[in-house]
Amino acid sequence: MLSTMGASCQRSYGTLLSKLPLFAGIEMDDDELAHFVEHVDKDNNGIITFEEWRDFLLLYPHEATIENIYHYWERVYLVDIGEQAVIPEGISKHVHATKFLIAGGVAGTASRTTTAPLDRLKVVLQVQTDHAAIVPAVKKLWKEGGFLGFFRGNGLNVLKVAPESAIKFYTYETLKTIIGDAKGEKQGDIGTVGRLVAGGLAGAVAQTSIYPMDLVKTRLQTYACEGGNVPSLRKLSKDIWVQEGPRAFYRGLVPSLLGIIPYAGIDLTAYETLKDMSKKYILHDDEPGPLVQLGCGTISGALGATCVYPMQVIRTRMQAQSMNTDAAYKGMSDVFYRTFQREGLRGFYKGLFPNLLKVVPAASITYMVYEFMKKSLDLE
């Protein structure tokens, strides 16, 4: 008799607990409520006893209101990394944002480190105003610093590219969702124009966010071309601030944005379009593998880089030159005029070949790693 009454009281207690979120004004569906009850019900018998509720509260460090307890459970449940772990809806958006940032950052770091020597060679060729040849430039870089000389500035490169790539991919995925919602379509069906807009804006946001680091990296990579010992990153940044002012860190931003907006738009749009086409017509709705991703990244990267390369040359020349010199460029139009006058149209494509040698594998590696990270982080 007593045991029956005790069991009945426990069931009533568990029923009351299951109704408390409603009384507290917390919106949660049946699945969330079931997960919450399951988390508290340690012996999985379908009954929350007083002891189980007490033990659960003992781990809670703040004021034990029902609303606070539920939000605490949201955070705690995220730590469960078992095969059946489910991220509560209340924080899923923030978790997805973090995952996209991680995926983009890892992808950018992997691709940039792999192609660092080609990036150094490209920058050196871009700032040379006389006839530039690849083989002499490679020999010069080797003579100046040996094997490690090809990786000069890569540490700063990674510090720049990791957040840039993270911001770009996260912004792109976010804008796809916004555009898709505005059009009443799924985020993957926003069309070519939607992808161009999302990609261009994502590239602009990312580039503006990290531009000072990009300028310091360019100065560091090209310092030896002007003679003298290579300064430390801290000293070089301080010298730019003191001698040229804070505005110098954004020198060349306009041509950079004029280049990155179409580049990011073309690159991201071409990649996703090619991936969708290969999935539909070649793979017959199967998910593209690493080789297909590499191929799509190769074509999209080469197409985007070639279209906007002249703006990249103008930006690099503005970045590499100190504002206090007599021969300093007066602006973007001055760089364009002097380059065309001295070197003709070919001057706007100096370093294009090593740039393609860098961009093509970099884009391929970036997309392949990004797709891998998305799958690993359950973003697909």
TrEMBL record:
Keywords, alphabetical: Calcium, Membrane, Metal-binding, Mitochondrion, Mitochondrion inner membrane, Repeat, Transmembrane, Transmembrane helix, Transport
Compartments, record wording: Mitochondrion inner membrane
Gene3D superfamilies (alphabetical): EF-hand, Mitochondrial carrier domain
Pfam family, one: Mito_carr
GO cellular component assignments: mitochondrial inner membrane
Solcar repeat start-end pairs: 95-178, 190-277, 288-376
Name under which the protein is recorded: Calcium-binding mitochondrial carrier S -2-B-like
Record organism: Olea europaea subsp. europaea
Source species taxonomy: Eukaryota, Viridiplantae, Streptophyta, Embryophyta, Tracheophyta
